[in-house]
Amino acid sequence: MKLKLACLFTILSVGIHLYLANHFHVVQMGTADGKSTCNISDTFNCDTVAASDYSAIAGIPIAAFGATTNLVILILLGLVLLRLTEIPEKAMRGAFWLSAFSLAASVVMGVVSLTALTTYCLYCIVLYIFSLLVFILIKGAAKELEIGLSFSELISDIKSYTKAPVWPVVFALSIPAFAFFINKGFEGNNIEGSSKDFKRLVSSSIQDWQNGKVHEFDSPPSLIKGDSSSSAKVTIVEFADFRCGHCQKASGPLTTFVNSHSDVQLHFYNFPLDGACNDKIPNSNGVSCRLAKAVHCANKQEKGWLVHDTIFANQKSFFTVGSSDGVDKKLKTILTENSPDWTKLTACMDSPETHQAIKKQAELAVKVGVQGTPKIFMNGKVLPAGQFLPVLKKARSVVLGN
Length: 402
Description:
The chain is α+β, with helices and mostly antiparallel strands and about 400 residues long. The protein has helices at about 1-30, 45-50, 60-80, 90-115, 120-145, 150-160, 165-190, 195-210, 245-260, 285-300, 305-315, 325-335, 340-350, 350-365, 390-400; strands spanning about 55, 60, 225, 235-240, 265-270, 375-380, 380.
């Protein structure tokens, strides 16, 4: 029974690790279609953990190594459970010590989350628990089968492998290879074109950014997220329109990047593609301007990012809205939980001061060369392809001199 349970929890571990390995690339490339079920709050947020510097080794997500390690454990346990090996004691010892390694890795990653990130991946916590259960169950099953699990016996097994190689050794040595191919598969699913083309894109983006002109942003942004201005080493400036699909896609990676790096600050500026508050745009229906004003005013009630995220999450519903009144009606239906005071919000949105503030942001955008959205700057210079986490991470490492 213990052996069967160990197999069950190992199968579940493989599945969760594969999900997280794919999610790593979804986060890196910003290809998510919606909010992850693993993102509950700023404290429990898988995206933030996946975007951190601790989520991968040599570009391969740690989850891919976890998937292959657990797959090898499962195969070894299966050989014993189905009686497909004449040396069950060796297969059992191999599975036990791999499970011990997996448990140790779980402890290390848990400590990193507690000390370096202070953000937690809920699915990772489940995996930590599973790794402990698998370790205990394998140990109990070995005792029932009267199989020794001592380290000296493992060393003896390893020495015997040099004379007569067996499948446990082959599997163990295949873990890095399995992880590599799993990673390549998920990477290919989330990158448009080849990985070589994307690497060239990252390199070209960083080179253009380094050679770019430094701009001054002399108008205050509508929103600020991240480290305080006095200590931030990296400052990202984003110009966006709330009905721009690419802006909606860029929002996730930018927010995740800021949340996962304590030395980064994000300044959000509005550049509505709407002539009602942007003199550079010929067409006008007031929708994008009204959305910009809603976020700008919500921030005065410390609800700016909430409204920002809510609008982007419901972006499609604003494609059919044709007037400012329509925006207000739609906003009132979607801003329910922890929403800003509606009377204060609309009074602020209708004020001439707010209109001038949004116009100044649009004028600043034109001044620094913004022609479309999203437009992203890092430390004053335009960062092409700045909506991709690999580009953001590489640029940050350059700023920090790494």
